[in-house]
Amino acid sequence: MAGFRSLARQVRDPRSDLALRRYSLRKCLERFAPYGHRATWDHLCERHDIEPEDRAPDPARLMAALDELEEARAVWLAYETQFAKRRKREKHDGLRRPGTFDDWHRRTWGGNGVARCDDPAVHPTEPLAEVLRRLIAGLESGPGGACPVCAEKGIVWRPDLSQAPWAGAVCKGCGIVVPRPVLTSEAMERAKRVRQRELASAA
Length: 203
Known about the structure:
Number of helices: 7
Largest sheet: 3 strands, antiparallel
Strand order of the largest sheet: 1-2-3
Number of strands: 3
Distance between the termini: 50 Å
Shape: globular
Mean pLDDT: 90
Helix content: 40-55%
């Protein structure tokens, strides 16, 4: 199975058929897709003016989409390197059992779904790398009361997400499933109350 870098080389190969280059870009999303596969593809198509079903898109647009994806991947890999170093230090100091923060990180290892968007058509509009930088800053600064990506306080608890995690707090501004470690317990309770009010008004 080809890795991300090998697939990226195929996207860049001007001798390759455009359909193959597009296919290789889609395959890259099986290795790294911050919003999930479908939402990340929708994001790249919107930002780089690629028709989602076009089998022979403009190669310059394909390259621009790949460049954005690679920049974001570099941001995430640098974060994972620092995370691994921290865990190594903690284990050395006798802290073997990981906390809830590490539970979240373990589910997103490799960068897939770190800022999952349950609705593939609703996702942040900023470049992927900027979104990940904001998310990482939120993770490193500790729990808060708003979405770390768009600063929206309108967050609602959803118990029926389409992919794991099957329940979570969803930002009503940018659409990401907000990682549990970046929200205070008060923010989580507020999100659940919003859900209860939505159910009550729909009844």
